[in-house]
Amino acid sequence: MTETTVTMPQLGESVVEGTIGQWLKAVGERVAKYEPLVEVITDKVNTEIPSPVSGVLQAILVKEGATVPVGTPIAVLAADAAEAAAEPQGADKAAGSAPQAAPAGASAPAGWGAPPPAAGAPTANPPAAGAGSEASPAAGAAFAAGDAPLPRGVYSPLVRRLAKEYGIDLRQVRGTGAGGRVTKRDVLAYVAQRGAAAPAAAWPAAAPAPPAGSAEPPPAGTLAATAGPPVSREPGDEVIAPDAIRRAIAQRMVQSKQTVPHAWTMVEVDVTSLVAWREQIKEEFRRREGVDLTYLPFFIKAVVESLKEFPRLNASWQDDGIVVKKRIHIGVAVGLDHGLVVPVIHDADRLSIAGLAQRLADLIGRARAGKLGLDDVQGGTITVNNTGAFGSVASYPIISPPQAAIVTMEAIVRRPVVVGDGIAIRSMMNVCLSFDHRVTDGLYVGRFLQSLRRRLESVGPGTALY
Amino acid sequence: MATKTLLEAIREALAEEMRRDDRVFVLGEDVGKRGGVFRVTQGLIEEFGPHRVLDTPLAESLIVGVAIGAAAYGLLPVAEIQFADFIHPAMDQIINEAAKIRYRSNGRWSCPIVIRAPYGGGVHGALYHSQSVEALFYHVPGLKIVAPATPYDAKGLLKAAIRDPDPVLFFEHKKAYRSIRGEVPDEEYVLPIGKADIKRPGQDLTVITYGYNVHLCLEAAERLAREEGIEAEVIDLRTLLPIDRETIVASAKKTGRVMISHEDTKTGGIGAEIAAIVAEEALFYLDAPIVRVAPPDVHPMPFNPKLEAVFMPSVEQQYAAMRDLARY
Amino acid sequence: MENRHAALGLSDQDVVAMYEKMLLTRLLDERAWVLNRLGKVNFLVSAQGHEAAQVGAAWALRPGVDWALPYYRDLGVALTLGSTARDYVLSLFAKAEDPYSGGRQMPSHWSSPPLKMFTGSSPVATQLPQATGVAYGIKLRGDDAVVYVSFGEGSASAGDAHEAMNFAGVHRLPVIFFCQNNRYAISVPQEKQMAVENVADRAAGYGFPGVVVDGMDPLAVYGAMKEAVARARRGEGPTLIEAKVYRYTPHSSDDDDRTYRARDEVEQWRERDGLPRWRDYLMGLGLLTEEADAALRQRLLAEVDAAVAYAEAAPDPEPEDLTRHVYAE
Predict the structure, then answer these.
(1) Could you tell me the pTM of the whole model?
(2) How far does the CA of residue A13 sit from the closest CA of chain C (Å)?
């Protein structure tokens, strides 16, 4: 004897439940296969349910008058052996003859990175203005005259893709499309012209970058522009496909070195007072501000104030002249595992040392977490690099076009130095500067550096943090 | 080679197929003695007799139902619906029957019928002799829809339709019947259903169109090239279903600017489907939004000639749209 | 008992064989209901009460030569023309081997190229114009075949029925319009369906004969069909035969007929059930005994059981089958 469970069947399309009307057999009674077992009421049909097997009604699970969903067990039969073997269990049809809604693969595929360009949905300029409401002869005309041009900064999917592939800042590209739109033709013309030693080079956006290690093979031919003579390939050699960041850096560096005449100079700065002062206040600062007070804010402050005196270094060589920028946006180089990013402190001259410390903590933190936005990395007018952080005492930095200068803060080293007629142990820091020799000359730069040094050397208990 | 009108090319295709294969026969209202109200089937009854050129009662559902049954029996019927505007009574036989015969019998029966109908306006046909109905059937799997624009295409595609094992709707623009002439080879040729034709190559923008609009767009494209130096690529779909995705997408990727033009009203016209295909497969090649140039959502089209002209696509309208898209 | 079949050219074997088909139809139909109430079959259309008319009509056709476009109640016609219990049960379970549609259609949507049974659908009356198309093909080709097309009295109201009969009359096509009038189109009774008593009366309007027969008497139906087939083969055109029958069950497994007709009406018609009456006829002529009948029942039930077992175990279509046969492959 085996047990057979009887479940509430689905009687009719779209029926989801049934009510037990009357049990036609009692527990313990024999029932033959197909003999009516129970009366069931649904909102479509009232009917008798036959027994699926011959046997004895062992248990009634749902009482008369109760309503249960389709598929609910309602009785148990002790089936005669031969019957039970032949009866396929669980053969009840699933509820609902409606087809499963097939998941439409219609949503945008994952990984279509950049936020949808507004160019795709320009409400100011509905292109297909053949709307029925306008019963004008131009109904059906694509672009009705007088549509407002698109706001600047709205780019088509094609233009964005090309910009990414060529590593260009679209803000630098002049648009000839409707309303000053940048079109594909404009982008391609820009790229062609850039290739011909044109002075106006664009500063590529360094972030938001693709996640580290997104090693898509470089689009064919893009590395060729930066590559030199071939090297032999030997067993054991590894060919690493540079990721997008690497490629971008490579491109920028080559471009910078090819177009900007770099000149370099260095001064030594005695930061003993600065070191002592910082040592004194750093705990209190940490407690009060919640961020560390490094040397960098002091350095940036000094650079900024010196730039005010010597603005030529906050400038750019353009085809129509040297553009001396009024506002000072300090790019701060941050080394990451997979490359370099340069977040920008905009209007750094308006920040106090404490403000600079806060801003630095935020930018560097976000840079390390990969959370910089496009605005965070654009617009720098000069770059500062804390090469001393990795022990360097002298470096020859590469300028970021269209800037005119880049200044480094080298390691602070305790050294014996001549002071007066004697020897003292002082904390010494080198400051290096690469500059665009088209924009200015060594004399001017030397004075800038003297100014910078003086300011750094005079940092001490009187220095205002706020 | 000889110059023929669209109508002559269609008539030739019918006659040649009927000679070639005695399973082919024509049925519809007035197709026999009268030779069709447009005279498309003129001369056929004299050559093939009244049983193969059958004047049916005035009953569209019957016409298609008879075609389905005759095809089941092994014949190759070419049914005519006198005006596409009158196809609606036959919708059940077309959508629920013809389109589903193969699928519902799990491939054991088929329905190799052709349903021809003149469509389109600009002929003072008013609301019931001017409609475009292709969008109503576009959504139905199992059907094929062909709408040729030139005599060459019409002849080659009608032959293909008659030889096709599945039901084909064959729409002939009535304004083009006599006004469009073209070269038609004397030798036998068949064109493939499902393949679009680039009537005019270009690199500045893509125009996807069919039917009478093909001629409007070609004329506009010539002017655009002459006057503005803009080179438009004009694609004649020829077959609407199944649509030639490959040709459409390749052109969209080439030019980055896509305009779809048809005489059928805009909302829910097949231009919407084409726009979706281009967006799905070529989004990152688009330098401008996809443009659909089509009449407003009203019933095609009024009897008053001035109102009709407002509705009907024109060369100027295509030209303006193409130029604006090129400049966007 | 008077022998009514010899005069119609039917042998004793024929009439016993007819009974077998009618009984199989009934048993198969009853089993389909049981399977549905067990929750194993999602949907069925019933033929109980129509057996005599269907078997009697189909008996006048030449399977594989004549064409049939049977409507969805014609289980008896399908079985008589050569469909099997297994075919039917496979279609109930919508399995891949279902010969009618590979599980794509509801049950009772017949289709068989070798039996010249054209594929049917659910929208009613669409098969009538198609049947005239087949008949037109036969006439065009000069072939010797007729077309059987069946429908309920409800379908006779549809435009397609009128269009088809009109056309068939114009061209004197070899088609037999077989209307099984069971007095209800689902719940709509005849008096709301038409203003006349007989669907057959309309035939005069189309230029061909209309015949009313007792659909519970297979011989009456057979006789009318035989004459109609002969007419058609002689080139004399269509006939409209209206068989008066009764549907003992609801329209389908989704219908509840207690909402629209009285039980005693159903009981009254039960007394006129063609199946037991035919059995009595055979027994009266000594062509069937109680024992033989019991044995026959057993054999047929075993056939039904076997069909159910086979179909239950048969595989479902594969997911890839969904997209096949939209167009020619």
Answers:
(1) 0.70
(2) 7
